[in-house]
Amino acid sequence: MRVSAIFIIVLIAICDARKLKLRHLAKPDDRQSKPGACRDPPDLKEQLAEWLSEAAEGNTAEDWIQPSENDEDWSSSPPSGNSLCDAPLDTSTTSNVMQRSLCPWTWRVSYDDAREPKMLSEASCLCRRSRGTSGSYCMPIKRDTPILKRTRCNSDTGYFEYTRAKVPTTVGCHSVLPRTQRATYMSSSKKNHDDVVV
């Protein structure tokens, strides 16, 4: 009798513990329930749409960024054993864009919780040298993408504040010829050295 009473008490304690655990899991996020906790403003999507619209209207050549040879996409080595870079170009009617591209790319996603949009897709060049026999190099094509950047929490309203900004984003890869240096005239290479013209 005593054993069965102890068993029932233990069983009730286990059931209560499980209910308490389930209640704990179902609780809303503490950050949202605390007074003064910040959240995104309800019109954040409208703010972003307005900024994108204004940025598109004022689209200028300055929005396209000239990548340098020190660009991280330029200097980073392509993944080892990338068969696409070594494969011959396929221009058949059944080929896809990547099979015909001189500079193939892949997509990667960057995530930033303090940015709107939080996720941005970026191109990443797969090959350092262009495919084919042109002797060209693959360079990233970059442009400034309009975003909203979270700056602070306004404790009076309970909403985060965002400012307009632009971030450089790689949108593709293109094949470019290497820079060449012009030959200098012979007269500019003359030097005076101890009264001797060389």
From TrEMBL:
Keywords: Secreted, Signal
Regions crossing the membrane: none
UniProt signal peptide: 1-17
InterPro entries listed in its UniProt record: Cystine-knot_cytokine, IL-17_fam
Segments for region (Disordered): 59-92
Keyword Secreted: yes
Gene Ontology CC annotations of this record: extracellular region
GO molecular function, one term: cytokine activity
Places the protein is found: Secreted
Family: Belongs to the IL-17 family.
The protein's name: Uncharacterized protein
Native source species: Pristionchus pacificus (Parasitic nematode worm)
Lineage: Eukaryota, Metazoa, Ecdysozoa, Nematoda, Chromadorea
